[in-house]
Amino acid sequence: MSQFDVAIIGSGPGGYVAAIRCAQLGFKTAIIEKYSVLGGTCLNVGCIPSKALLASSHHYHDAVAHFEEHGIEVGKVKLNLEKMIGRKQAVVDQTTGGIKFLMDKNKITVFEGIGSFEDATHVKVTKNDGSSETIEAKYSIIATGSKPSNLPFITLDKERVITSTEALKLKEVPKHLVIIGGGVIGIELGQVYLRLGAQVSVVEFMDRIIPGMDASLSKELTKVLKKQGMKFYTSHKVKSVNRKGKAVTVEAETPKGEILSLEGDYCLVSVGRRPYTDGLNADKAGVKVTDRGQIEVNDHLQTSASNIYAIGDVVRGAMLAHKAEEEGVMVAEILAGQKPHIDYNLIPGVVYTWPEVAAVGKTEEQLKEEGVAFKSGSFPFKALGRARAGGDTDGFVKILADAKTDEVLGVHMIGPRCADLIAEAVTAMEFRASAEDISRMSHAHPTFAEAVKEAALAATDNRALHV
């Protein structure tokens, strides 16, 4: 029987990063993955392929809608969806191959098969051919991730009524894509197919899209996407989804209690994700699982079995790849006797539409609910030279700061390159910067980052210079 210091079940961003950090710290490490490729949801059917399609569809849309205004005449633009999907897969293959290289480089043993506990120190690996082997590990880290959720009355046929996984490999552009759920995944994939020529309708139970983010971001993104042609039905409760041939009918109850009927040729069900623990046999190891399917952990991500930890989507908190990575590093360092810490308030959230949406810290709604006195400063991208030069003038940056101390409490932005700009806000907040601290830092001109400086100036006695 092979023996290891640490066995990790799941090779997504949390699992493979935990494995690398464990190996760096001198642990003999194994990682168990049920699929033939490493990387989990994020690299195979999530973050990476969706960003590849967002990038390709953005290029296509620019060629169709914006090249001419830049003085670029290309004639009739033709879409080759098969080639676009093929490029997406090539990006995925290269990325997952890179993870395999990192496992080899760090001398991490990879087991292909389903990992299940026999007890707290033994993990059985059941391979695709039915054979199995058992390994012994002093510590285990559960990193089994999540799967798309569904509504109980919807039958996912994965042909016309689909999840995000199928939406990443369609063989045709939908004529009318009906999306159930106005969260990050639905909105991102909706914009991909909107750019490629589909009619896109979004049905959302809450009163706004991206409901977990600051309301001002939801409002601005809705305005921009409506301008691009996307249709929204917020505060609508889906009652039924039925397929007949190539047609899918979605019926939803409106805020007035009436029934709205939408007919499309595809329906994307994007109502969140659920923790995935199927086949884990957590109970055999003494690991408690909540009614919601999450694995219970303490502040050190330790489960009810003292030598077993859990990270990422399978535990509480935001289901984000970078959150899982931080947790993977944290557990590895705890096992090595170090004292790592994660400030969950400073895990940024991003929506990779265009304009991009990004945020970190508290929203206005949260600060009001908590009774915290704050001041707000905003700056629109349309007042920025770099944004006008590139033709990307939608959106703004908003900084929320403590009314007394001026400490930055939240940063919310929508606009060009906000997925990257948010890192400045995270850095500032990690060092407990004030709005004035940011406003006195030199920002290169002309850059999109100047909007962050100007928003900080706006939050500091309304001192913005260019608006």
Automatic annotation (TrEMBL):
Its cofactor is FAD. Binds 1 FAD per subunit. PROSITE patterns: PYRIDINE_REDOX_1. It catalyses: N(6)-[(R)-dihydrolipoyl]-L-lysyl-[protein] + NAD(+) = N(6)-[(R)-lipoyl]-L-lysyl-[protein] + NADH + H(+). Residues 347-456 form the Pyridine nucleotide-disulphide oxidoreductase dimerisation domain. Residues 4-328 form the FAD/NAD(P)-binding domain. GO terms for molecular function: dihydrolipoyl dehydrogenase (NADH) activity. Its EC number is 1.8.1.4. The keyword Flavoprotein applies. It is an enzyme of class 1 (oxidoreductase). The active site is a redox-active disulfide bond. Belongs to the class-I pyridine nucleotide-disulfide oxidoreductase family. This is Dihydrolipoyl dehydrogenase. It comes from Flavobacterium azooxidireducens. The gene is lpdA.
